[in-house]
# Entry
Amino acid sequence: MSKRIAIVQSSYIPWKGYFDLIRSVDHFVLFDDMQYTRRDWRSRNRIKSAQGLQWLSVPVEVKGKFHQRICDARIADPDWHGLHWRALHHAYARSRYFERYHDVIETTYAALAGELSLSNVNRRLIEVLCSLMEIDTPMSWSMDLPQREGRTERLVSLCQALEADEYLSGPAARDYLDESLFSAAGVRVVFADYHGYPQYSQEPGVFEHAVSALDLLFRTGPDAPRYMKRMA
# Structure
């Protein structure tokens, strides 16, 4: 029986395409022993309010830590979670389904008080959003699985550790993946296609796909899967 996996770094309240990857595989690996990159989706994302797009950024300690891994990144401001929840409340309080998800999202942010690990914050929020979207794909840390050195070799070894014969990758990886190494290991590579997403009501202003999936949930509620994709 075929088994498909995806291997992606954790992100902060990711966009809908991230969750399409998760729900399109049999197992999802959070690739958090990769190097942390500043000003990236690891620690920030965007929401859309009546005033337009707004960044929510988790403050991370970076001074003197130029080569730290994502799993080693530590949060610098213990009050970040309250600021983010208030921003979400302000942006979406009038959205159709805000009250439906208000309690669970507020409780989740409150529970993150004192959590210093960026990876743990990201995973907890990803798991909560998966639950709200009825996505039950098993999830693992890359750190808990054996892997080899080398950019593509590491991915291949994770596939082998999970006995996968298909690897679903983001489209940007076409530029660096050595598909021959996957082929030699008996693993087929499939690239996700993020084109053709339908729009939903996101007024006022111009529609924007590249925002946190919380935007989709607060605005469309249980209809969210209609505005998502299954990766072939």
About this structure: The chain has a mean pLDDT of 96. The radius of gyration is 18 Å. Helices lie at 16-23, 80-92, 98-111, 118-132, 151-161, 179-184, 213-220.
